Amino acid sequence: MRIDILTLFPEMFSGVLSASMLGRARESGLLAVETHDIRAFTQNKHNKADDYPFGGGAGLVMMAQPIFDCMDRVLSDGMPARRILLTPRGRPLTTGLARCLARERRLVLLCGHYEGVDERVSAILDDEISIGDYVLTGGELPAMVLIDCVSRFIPGVLGSAESAEDESFSEGLLEYPQYTRPADFRGMQVPEVLLSGHHKNIEAWRRQQALEKTRRMRPELLGNHGKNL
Ligand code: 4FM
What we know:
This protein has 8 helices and 9 strands. By secondary structure, it is of the alpha/beta class. Strand 8 and strand 9 (188-189) form a beta hairpin.
């Protein structure tokens, strides 16, 4: 997959995109990510990319012109893309949406900022996505979250042992508790059942723990199912 990022802060991305599994995905050629500095497309002498809102009000609005010109340049190679704005106004990013986006050949991510983006930019967007009901200072972190989340569903990015598609066992439930060596750490014991080698019992214990954790932390995930369990 190819991903282009339109941003006022391209320097924010280098660490996240080079480390760990995203770095490996890029090295292996499964993922190609490029940042594009919107400010390079401004036409005023102070390189301003934002301006006061018509009608008044606090804050500044990202101007349409630098964004249109940046988008035109990025898409001038003729390869089609799904163009997405990261904004709290968007539809929620979920596992389902991430799985769907992972099937695209190319994404263009526009990072919203300040108090908003000139509404006319919606003419060159296919989608608006939010990573959650809170307001950040910019869409850069949300773009990184989306890239990380979507990449896990690109075949080959995760090893086959850790494939994101194999999480269906616990689909809709929070994860059960995990332990590794030693079995006794500062007097805190690993639950006996996990040391027993009894796979049926282990599976039953994990399911019960996942249900209990979900009921405590996210009861709405259980819906009508969990109320009877
Ligand atoms: C904040 C963009 C205000 C536009 C931001 C405005 C965000 C989110 C986010 C910064 N993006 N999910 N939550 N962006 O807060 O995606 Cl008007």
